[in-house]
TrEMBL record:
Residues 297-329 are annotated as: Disordered. It comes from Streptomyces virginiae. It comes from the Bacteria. This is CD-NTase associated protein 4-like DNA endonuclease domain-containing protein. The lineage of its organism: Bacteria, Bacillati, Actinomycetota, Actinomycetes, Kitasatosporales.
Length: 329
């Protein structure tokens, strides 16, 4: 991203994804599926974090760029293709049903120099969102984007960016995992413990994506939380999840947590074993990313300045080593 900006150009979703994946490989595994014209722009990818014991979390991901239009920072969540009255955002949330996973965005946000004029009007405990470490490649639930668009479409990009988490840090055991306090009382014991106690690996990824969604839900005057049980998903880690919608378009807990599984789906096993997944998977995706050993402990080499091992250190936002000192002018 920095390279393109320095050369007077602008980074794009497809290229940024290819650079990210090729740089993070072989720590992560990925497979690209044959792109047709429709897929070239806005093809969704499936990402799966897989722990050593097979617990895993799946996410349907669409790549987006944080852009400066005039003086306004924005993310194009409500793009419509000609002749289709549905927005990309609503299509992404619906498309996640095919795989029974959560929908999210991966945001390419450039470096801190690129974001220098981004001002967010929300509270910050520590550093403003534009200056966070490693936030150049970050992720946020599609339900956060849906809410941001419905509350204030013009400001939805900055608002979603505020709630985005660095992809590199998302499962970091070194970061604080504050308890999530659910609105509803009397949740199933395993789900209640998941929310309140620190988590690792794929469970942690699910929890970090859920965190801003639950905060939004806790701020909604949508009546008492419904405790009716959502339809169960095969191999889901949590079988008893409340069917509460709040003001979201889908039951948010069920949507966020259905991709958290006790068993790796066959098509993910295919990717890990070098086989081509079946057509019902490959026909609908740009590709699949698998992050194995998602719960592996942080090693000294990976820890760096607090960064953690989902991706190698020195990726987005980290200072790059200078060129060959012998070449210094
Ligand atoms: Zn902010």
């Amino acid at each position: 991203m920095t390279g393109m900006l320095e050369a007077g150009g602008m980074f794009r979703e497809v290229t940024a994804t290819q650079v990210l994946l090729s740089t993070a490989s072989p720590r992560i595994r990925f497979v690209e599926f044959a792109a047709d014209e429709e897929k070239e722009n806005g093809a969704d990818w499936l990402w799966w974090w897989v722990d050593r014991d097979g617990t895993c979390f799946g996410l349907l991901v669409q790549a987006k760029i944080l852009k400066l239009n005039g003086k306004r920072w924005s993310i194009d969540f409500t793009y419509r293709t000609r002749g289709d009255d549905r927005t990309q955002l609503s299509k992404l949330i619906a498309a996640a049903n095919r795989f029974h996973v959560a929908a999210a965005y991966v945001l390419y946000c450039g470096d801190s120099e690129y974001r220098a004029t981004l001002n967010c009007d929300r509270a910050h405990d520590d550093v403003p969102c534009r200056a966070r470490d490693r936030i150049g490649v970050s992720t946020v639930s599609a339900l956060v984007a849906e809410t941001a668009v419905s509350l204030d479409a013009r400001n939805s990009g900055v608002s979603a960016f505020h709630d985005a988490v660095s992809v590199e840090d998302i499962a970091s055991p070194d970061r604080l995992d504050a308890p999530i306090v659910p609105l509803a009382r009397g949740m199933a014991g395993d789900l209640d413990r998941f929310l309140r106690q620190p988590q690792r690996g794929s469970r942690r990824v699910a929890k970090e994506l859920l965190r801003p969604v639950q905060r939004i839900r806790n701020g909604q005057f949508a009546g008492a939380a419904v405790m009716e049980r959502a339809a169960p998903v095969t191999s889901a880690l949590f079988e008893n999840v409340p069917n509460d919608y709040g003001h979201f378009s889908v039951p948010y807990l069920a949507h966020m947590l259905r991709g958290l599984r006790v068993e790796v789906p066959d098509y993910v096993r295919d990717v890990l074993d070098g086989r081509t997944p079946p057509a019902w998977v490959t026909d609908h995706l740009g590709g699949i990313v698998v992050i194995p050993d998602a719960d592996a402990p942080t090693t000294a080499a990976q820890a760096g300045d607090g960064g953690v091992g989902l991706l190698p250190p020195g990726l987005p936002d980290a200072p790059q080593p200078s060129h060959d000192p012998g070449q210094a002018a």
